[in-house]
Write a structure and sequence with these properties.
Helix content is about 75%, strand content about 0%. The chain is mostly helical.
């Protein structure tokens, strides 16, 4: 009886899919570092920009995030642990099932794990990582070992089966104890990998094949689970595209406000130096300040009126700020035209009291 490793190596000497997956994950991480991600930790905004799984974004027509999230990692430690597990288990499972079947188990497990994560966290968690797919290959590994247990040396079976079982159980337990670990993706990937191990099982050296009945039962269980998961997808609280638009408008407004405030101060300084009439000062304030704040106010007012948007409160504050600054500039222009010092002072005080909030993270 050949040792398991020799038997598998004899059947499938090379593991190109495992090497390719490790390489892609490394390349994506390096690209993220070059794009501003942190070596030890990346913020949610960076992860979202690169395609992390997040309910309001994924459910806003960006379902590809269920796949792209499989290649994102939140730091070097996260990446190292996942790639170590992928390299260690991937070589075995690719040889057990073959290149195409291994790839199928990996990707379907990752997608199913991310879908379960979306449902379990009600779309509120920003998640990413290859661990759901990796748990899938460990699920398939255990199915293969259990199925072939009578054709393996007992000591070898115990070493591989209980080692893989212990690793899987310990990782899942840690996932329940440590916050920030997406155990839903782990569990979804693991169960999918087990079902995939039955559906895609192949004989080794003429060993008895899996019955069509078992394949059909596993396929039916997967289909039923998928239907249930899809039916439980939470109702999105807001559309990510609307939040992105709101953040864009906020950023543009804050940049414009700096320029408008500088223009306003420049006009006031010019008025103090003399050589310009009150009417001319009033006209410049209307054009360079009042009209521009009116335009900003209208743009902010036309944003989607969804109070569930994270930026909704900031948009409302900025809209009120733009309105106050517009009214103050108009009052100042009227005071200059009427040459009423008291109205001019009140208008300047109104403008001073309109405080601009800082840009949200």
């Amino acid at each position: 009886m050949l040792p398991l490793h020799d038997l598998l190596y004899q059947q499938t000497p090379r593991v190109p899919v495992t090497k390719l997956l490790v390489g892609i994950n490394l390349l994506v991480f390096v690209a993220m570092l070059a794009g501003g991600a942190g070596l030890w930790h990346s913020s949610n905004s960076v992860q979202l920009a690169w395609g992390a799984n997040f309910g309001p974004a994924t459910q806003d027509g960006e379902w590809w995030r269920l796949g792209s999230a499989m290649f994102l990692h939140f730091g070097a430690v996260h990446l190292t642990l996942n790639l170590w597990a992928l390299w260690d288990g991937g070589q075995l499972v690719e040889r057990m099932y073959g290149h195409a079947r291994f790839a199928g188990i990996y990707f379907v497990s990752g997608l199913a794990g991310n879908l379960l994560s979306l449902v379990a966290h009600r779309g509120l968690a920003v998640s990413g990582g290859a661990s759901g797919a990796i748990f899938g290959i460990y699920g398939a590994l255990l199915i293969f070992l259990w199925r072939e247990r009578h054709n393996l040396h007992p000591q070898e079976f115990r070493w591989f089966f209980w080692g893989a079982s212990g690793f899987t159980a310990a990782t899942l337990i840690l996932g329940f104890l440590i916050t920030g670990i997406d155990n839903a993706a782990h569990i979804g990937g693991f169960l999918t990998g087990m079902l995939g191990g039955v559906i895609l099982a192949r004989p080794v050296n003429g060993i008895k094949r899996v019955s069509h009945r078992n394949r059909l039962l596993a396929a039916s269980a997967f289909a039923l689970a998928l239907v249930i998961l899809i039916s439980q997808i939470p109702v999105r609280t807001y559309r990510w595209s609307e939040e992105v638009l709101a953040r864009k408008e906020i950023g543009e407004f804050l940049r414009d406000d700096v320029a408008i405030s500088q223009a306003w101060q420049g006009i006031l300084d010019e008025g103090k130096r003399g050589g310009i009439s009150f009417d001319e000062l009033a006209g410049r304030i209307d054009t360079a300040v009042g009209d521009r704040y009116e335009e900003s106010f209208e743009q902010l007012s036309h944003l989607p009126p969804n109070p569930a948007l994270p930026s909704a409160a900031t948009v409302e504050i900025l809209r009120h700020y733009a309105e106050r600054r517009r009214d103050a500039s108009r009052a100042l222009a009227e005071g200059l035209r009427a040459q009423k010092p008291e109205q001019i002072r009140d208008a300047l005080e109104m403008a001073k009291q309109a405080r601009q909030p800082s840009k949200p993270e």
